[in-house]
Amino acid sequence: MLAPMPRVLQKIRALLLLCLLTPAGPALADRADEKQFEACQRPEAPTILDGRSARQEQISEMRQAVVDFIGVNMTYRKCLERELALIGDNNSSKAQSIKAYIDEAITDSLDMDDLVADTFNTQLRIYKSLQK
User: Fold this and answer.
1) How far is 64 from 59, CA to CA, in rounded Å?
2) Each residue of 61-102: pLDDT tens digit?
3) Cα 31 to Cα 10: distance, rounded to the nearest angstrom
4) Rounded to an integer, what is the distance from CA 64 to the centroid of its chain?
5) Residues of 102-125 as b/e, b for ≥16 C-beta within 10 angstroms?
6) Angle 102-103-105 (CA atoms, 0-180°, nearest 5)?
7) Is the separation of the CB atoms in 12 and 101 below 8 Å?
8) Whether the Cβ atoms of residue 80 and residue 109 lie closer than 8 Å to each other
9) How many whole angstroms separate alpha carbon 31 and alpha carbon 100?
10) What is the pTM of this model?
């Protein structure tokens, strides 16, 4: 089973709301509508079974789950990037903090893509080695 990614999204949303509700954030609030500030939803990584005990149909299902996860994870990153774009050139300390959290979430998302794909490929190699 894969380790969960750090949960930075609640912090991002809280900081975005704080930025919007304080005097330093009116320019940001003017550029954003409510829909753009809906929380981006980090997808859950699929469970990767042990290649030593997996059956052919389970391998196929895992492969599809990995492909689906990577697609949904890309959508998640695009959402984060849109929120990052909303902050734009705002250089307040709050905005910089939000940018750091979003950057970390994007990096974690990319790392999770690699981890899920690598874990699946490792188990697939194990599965195939036992089929000979």
Assistant:
1) 9
2) 999 999 999 999 999 999 999 988 888 888 888 888 888 889
3) 21
4) 18
5) bebbbebbeebbebbeebbeebbe
6) 60
7) yes
8) yes
9) 20
10) 0.69
Residues 6 or more apart from 78 whose CB is under 8 A from it? none
Question: Token pair of 81, please?
Answer: 């990037």
φ/ψ of residue 123, rounded to 5: -70, -35
The single-letter code of the amino acid at 128 is K
Do 8 and 104 contact (CB within 8 A), yes or no? yes
**Structure-block tokens of residue 65:** 């789950």
Given the structure tokens 């980090």, which residue do they identify? 42
Using N-to-C axis directions, what is the helix angle for 93-130 and 9-21, rounded to 10°? 160
- Residues 48/130, Cβ–Cβ less than 8 Å: no
